[in-house]
Amino acid sequence: MTGPFRTEVADGIAELELCNPPVNAFGVGAQSALADEIENLGQRDDVRVIIIAATGKGFFAGLDIKEMAADPSLIVPANKANYDTFAAIHLNPKPVIAAVHGYVLGGGVGIAGSADIVIAADDAYFGVPEIDRGGMGMGAHLQRMFSLQKVRYMYFTGDTIEAAEAYRLGAVERVVQRAELRPTAREIAGRIASKSPQMIGIAKRSLNGVEDGSLEDKYRWEQGFTFEAYLTGDSAEARAAFAEGRDPDFGPASDE
């Protein structure tokens, strides 16, 4: 299909490419369509493995903050679109490989943290600028990739982690040169696609079942705090500042 993403299927491998320049940020409608596409791919008999990759400078920047700043009432459908996208990956009956490059931020972390395998180009870096954008979320997905205290450091500071460090910490399977990203993802997908689809499906359900808690329940918990954040003046100021390209003004610090 044309639009913010496109899909090709060959030899049992579905390649879903995010392609919404300039930064691969999606509006709520596009994010909902993405969730539907991933879910539909999981139901196709000719698909055994799904690769999610992207064009442009980076992998995915998540929801369009400028759209959210213009209409804060979108927070409810935005939460649903995010939830549906990440659940469509994590609970998909087919293995999902995220082939990431450049910035992997916000919703990009949600995709990578929901995936079964992450392959990273050597220019990739992971981050959650949620606090600086007036929102919450992605902590559950980030914690699926990194340790608890590393997640808190990243969340509170907004600092990013580069691909090599993510590999050292066990968050990604391989780090390769950008030109080798798609071929590497296809090679791994081909090995998986050659196996019994019934056994792979059983294996995925089994592995999801032995994870520590429910990723979807944890993210739903976070979304309640996203909604709470959107009711605060600081959240509105953070979104407005980002949309206007300026530093936020949260007022003077209090000594009390």
What does this molecule look like?
The chain is of the alpha/beta class. The radius of gyration is 18 Å and the shape is globular. The protein starts with a strand and ends in a 12-residue tail after the last helix. The mean pLDDT is 92. The longest helix is centred in the N-terminal third of the chain and has 16 residues, at 28-43. 47% of the residues lie in helices and 17% in strands. It contains eleven helices and eleven strands. Helix 1 packs parallel to helix 3 (75-90), helix 3 packs parallel to helix 4 (107-114) and helix 3 runs antiparallel to helix 10 (215-230). A six-stranded mixed β-sheet has the order 1-2-4-6-8-11, sandwiched between helices.
What is the quaternary state of this protein? single chain
The total count of strands amounts to: 11
- Roughly what percent helix? 40-55%
Estimate what percentage of residues fall within beta strands. 15-25%
The topology string of helices and strands comes to EEEHEEHHEEHEEHHEHEHHHH
Strand order of the largest sheet: 1-2-4-6-8-11
Q: Measured on Cα atoms, how large is the radius of gyration?
A: 18 Å
Form type: globular
Mean pLDDT equals 92
